[in-house]
Write a structure and sequence with these properties.
By secondary structure, the protein is mostly helical. It is 62% helix and 3% strand. The protein has a three-stranded antiparallel beta sheet. Helix 1 packs across helix 9 (170-180), helix 4 packs across helix 5 and helix 7 (128-146) runs antiparallel to helix 8 (155-165). The longest helix has 20 residues, at 3-22. It starts with a helix and ends with a helix.
């Protein structure tokens, strides 16, 4: 199995799950993210050159925006176990730097937002299951902190999606995508 093919299968599997849980077009006046499609905000899309109305965005266009904004060169793309999905989803919901800060708090290293040797060593020295567990708890903490901005309107959905993602057999799902490539 080639690493490039495996990495593409991971990206496809993770991103299809993100698109599934984020849903289609939304323009909720209570959501500070504003107009979105497949979880991509209009602001993010436009920053990457997207010019069409958000309601017309295709899944393939959304995937390429996810690739550019959250996958290429990301820490999630370089963690070779299931915690990568949690970090990827967290990056999408909070931004790359905030995701690294939350990860650093979860693994007990200085939270400076910089992925350096201490962060990488801590990641490699913690078990996958403990890392996923710690990331989930820290992510829930983050959701609670930001919930007052939306009058707690979305916290139950965020929690449910996070917990549901822990039940996914990523190895099996990635293998399915790899066979399709």
């Amino acid at each position: 199995m080639g690493l490039d093919k495996y990495q593409e299968a991971r990206f496809q599997a993770y991103t299809d799950e993100v698109i599934r849980i984020e849903g289609g077009y939304v323009n909720d006046p209570h959501d500070p993210g504003g107009e979105t499609k497949y979880g991509i905000t209009k602001r993010l899309a436009e920053s990457y050159g997207y010019k069409k109305p958000m309601i017309n965005m295709t899944k393939d266009e959304a995937k390429e925006l996810y690739r550019k904004a959250f996958w290429i060169g990301s820490l999630a793309s370089n963690i070779m176990h299931d915690a990568a999905f949690n970090l990827y989803l967290l990056s999408i919901h909070s931004g790359n730097k905030q995701a690294v800060l939350i990860l650093q708090r979860a693994i007990g290293v200085k939270d400076d937002g910089v992925v350096g040797p201490n962060t990488l060593n801590a990641i490699s020295n913690v078990s996958e299951s403990l890392l996923i567990e710690a990331l989930c708890y820290r992510t829930l903490d983050f959701y609670v902190i930001i919930s007052p901005k939306t009058q707690y309107r979305y916290i139950q959905g965020w929690r449910n999606r996070l917990l549901a993602s822990r039940r996914i057999n990523w190895k099996e799902r990635i293998n399915e995508y790899e066979r399709l490539l």
